[in-house]
Amino acid sequence: MIDFSRVQKELQDCEKDKDASGIRVSPKSDNLTRLTGTIPGPIGTPYEGGTFQIDITIPEGYPFEPPKMQFSTKVWHPNISSQSGAICLDVLKDQWSPALTLKTALVSIQALLSTPEPKDPQDAVVAEQYIKNYQVFVSTARYWTETFAKNSSLEEKVKRLVEMGFGDAQVRSAIESSGGDENLALEKLCSG
Amino acid sequence: MISDSITNASATAAPSARDFAKKKRTNRSAKLKQSKLGLRREQWLSQVAMINKGGDKEEMDSNRKTGSEKPDQRDRPVENLDGQGREEEDNSGTHGHESFMESLSNSPNSILSGMNSIPNFSSSSSSGSGGSCSGNITEEEDADDDECLDDWEAFADALAADDEKHEKENPPESCEEHENVIKQSASPRDSISGSDVAVRDAKLDCPRTMSRKQKSNQAWRPDDKLRPQGLPNLEKQRSFPVMNMHFSSVAVPSSCPICYEDLDLTDSNFLPCPCGFRLCLFCHKTICDGDGRCPGCRKPYERNTVKVEASVQAGGLTIRLARSTSMFCRVVCEYIGWYTNVKYIKLQ
């Protein structure tokens, strides 16, 4: 039995200071078991300027069990899987406390973005790059932020795809049919 | 004779206690507490006045008593207190705000249902202590008798000065006696941990009360740290004694931080972890069924222990139950509270 009243109140609290914290939580479904969290990339990191979406699943035992969180936005980070978006963070596992909230958990994730722990990696490839070739890591992370974490306007997307050599009308219909996802639209354009 | 006076005192105090309890139920906000400050002051003043008037009577009482009676006296007030305390608990409406202790400390944490009966004895019980505890009062009354002081402040000053002299003559004795009395009184109730707790708390208590004595040349200086919190014109941000710091610094939340439900009186007096993290009993139970770690500090809760934490705060007593699993805690609290009160009254 999930304590929905607590989730509801947490959502209200988040809504109150979303401008100050930049952190938003919104329900995906009506029953509040699946939510979407949004955090801004920390300033002074390769993730600056990006907006990262996190899928949140509220388990049965919440708040006595940690919420399940993983990135839906692709991130290049030693402690976040570049494939699945799974997060390696202690407060989402054994160090969870019922006194923590969805918002504080998201703040912790935001802090993780600015202080990677390559010695306890989730993504070994990224961690290796972070240790052996930090500059390459930074540029890759920045590129991923630019590519996946920035909400560009429709016109910018159209412009980029037109530059690739597709027709303007074709591009617009492809973007529309793929729900605004630039990469999905590109795939559609390429496949036919 | 003493027992009669105690019963009478508490009987007269009971209606007003009920009155206070009603008010408390209907209005639990902090605003009300503020408005009660005036009443508390009156109460406090009247108690001091009662001692002032009762000085003659006390003297007569204690003069009449011979040495052989003393052990009896020591036991009798305790028995009486015990019975009376239970009576009060049964009434259950007579909680909290009447408490003399609370009026002194004015801390929302210090509302403890077990303490409710204390003020009723404070005025009358001092006569019992005059014979049994140290005998200080008897001599003091002799000294002050013919002066017929009307002003309670002047009276308090005189007493304090007098007390100081006695303290210099034999400071450790009163402290020891205090402990012994508590040991005696606690042992029939609970043979194991109760007396230990009481004695430990008495030790905590003694140096503090003594320091109060040494400091007080006036009744209460405005900058006196130990000035009762219930008195008006209080600066809100005044810091509490350091000993009590880790409790006072943690404000009692109005709702449980886990389930976001409002904390009731029991919940807000429930302090399961020394880190000061408060939560409601339901959430505590759920956590104990799981990994049993405090959400505030992640340390495991101590299981199956009964902890009574007591400390003297501004001359009053603040007691918190760590786990209210047993009724005897209340009784121990009453003993501690009563003897502290006796000491306190003596200081006036």
Automatic annotation (TrEMBL), chain A:
GO terms, molecular function: ATP binding; ubiquitin conjugating enzyme activity
Presence of keyword ATP-binding: yes
EC identifiers of the protein: 2.3.2.23
Pfam families: UBA, UQ_con
Keyword annotations: ATP-binding, Nucleotide-binding, Transferase, Ubl conjugation pathway
SMART domains: UBA (SM00165), UBCc (SM00212)
Family according to the record: Belongs to the ubiquitin-conjugating enzyme family.
UBC core domain boundaries: 2-150
SUPFAM superfamilies named in the record: UBA-like, UBC-like
InterPro entries in UniProt: UBA, UBA-like_sf, UBC, UBC27_UBA, UBQ-conjugating_AS, UBQ-conjugating_enzyme/RWD
Domain of life according to the entry: Eukaryota
Ranges for region Disordered: 13-40
Residues of the UBA domain: 153-192
Protein name per the record: E2 ubiquitin-conjugating enzyme
Taxonomic placement: Eukaryota, Viridiplantae, Streptophyta, Embryophyta, Tracheophyta
Enzyme class: transferase
Active site annotation, chain numbering: 88
UniProt keyword annotation of Transferase present: yes
UniProtKB/TrEMBL annotation, chain B:
Compositional bias ranges of the Acidic residues kind: 138-149
Domain RING-type: 256-298
A GO molecular-function descriptor: zinc ion binding
UniProt entry tagged with the keyword Zinc-finger: yes
Record's compositionally biased regions (Basic and acidic residues): 54-79, 162-181
GO cellular component, one term: CCR4-NOT complex
Stretches with biased composition (Basic residues): 21-34
InterPro entries tied to this protein: Mot2, NOT4_mRING-HC-C4C4, Znf_RING, Znf_RING/FYVE/PHD
Keywords from the named record: Metal-binding, Zinc, Zinc-finger
BP GO annotations: protein ubiquitination
Name of protein: RING-type domain-containing protein
Source organism of this protein record: Eutrema salsugineum
